[in-house]
């Protein structure tokens, strides 16, 4: 099941939100060693206080499989406030039809089912949910900041995007920015991944 919810609805989806913040702490701090703030086992930053839109993928029992966060670029977001250097000569994006995706997170232990290209079907499903949601909201583009490791996953999953600026190291992590055209994503293989996940969870 794909859950799309604003932060203001956190009381309605309390269990999902708690799982999301705990998964972020596990994946970003424990597993990858990022310098993020973790409190009581949950990773929450200042952008979570701006009523972002969250996209969460759940199994039939309500277990969180993957999640990400969307913020409009007309307000504070990570590329404008934390990682502006990766934009290079492009400069900071301020456009109501361009939103930033961040905190992309997949529970790699939940479902270990991979396509021929090595991409987990859960990864494909959450990406499909991202672009389907963006298209429904009338967005033209999605912008994001991520490290080189994630960029490789995005390419292999079939996403179409343009790297906007230079590779910049933050705490020895090679980081880049990418711009995704909503109308060109998801590609057929991402959509097929969503169907595979749907079938798997319904089994």
Architecture overview:
This protein is an alpha+beta fold and 203 residues long. 31% of the residues lie in helices and 27% in strands. The strands form 2 sheets. Strands 1, 4, 5, 6, 7, 8, 9 and 10 form an 8-stranded mixed β-sheet that branches. Helix 3 links the parallel strand 6 and strand 7. It is globular, with a radius of gyration of 16 Å. The relative contact order is 0.15. The C terminus is likely disordered.
- Uncertain segments are 196-203
Radius of gyration: 16 Å
Secondary-structure element order, as H and E?
EHEEEEHEHEHEEEH
Kindly state the percentage of residues in helix. 25-40%
User: Distance between termini?
Assistant: 13 Å
Largest sheet, strands/sense/barrel: 8 strands, mixed
Mean pLDDT level: 89
Could you say which overall geometry the principal axes of the C-alpha atoms support? globular
Strand content: 25-35%
Tally of separate helices: 5
Class per helix and strand makeup = alpha+beta
Number of strands: 10
Quick overview of this protein structure:
Helices cover 31% and strands 27% of the residues.
Which short descriptors sum up this protein?
203 residues; alpha+beta; eight-stranded mixed beta sheet; disordered C terminus
Write the layout of secondary structure elements.
Blueprint: E1 2-6, H1 14-31, E2 38-39, E3 42-43, E4 53-58, E5 64-72, H2 78-81, E6 98-106, H3 121-136, E7 141-147, H4 148-157, E8 161-163, E9 168-170, E10 173-181, H5 188-202
Parallel strand pairs: 6-7
Antiparallel strand pairs: 1-4, 2-3, 4-5, 5-6, 7-10, 8-10, 9-10
Helix pairs in contact: 3-5
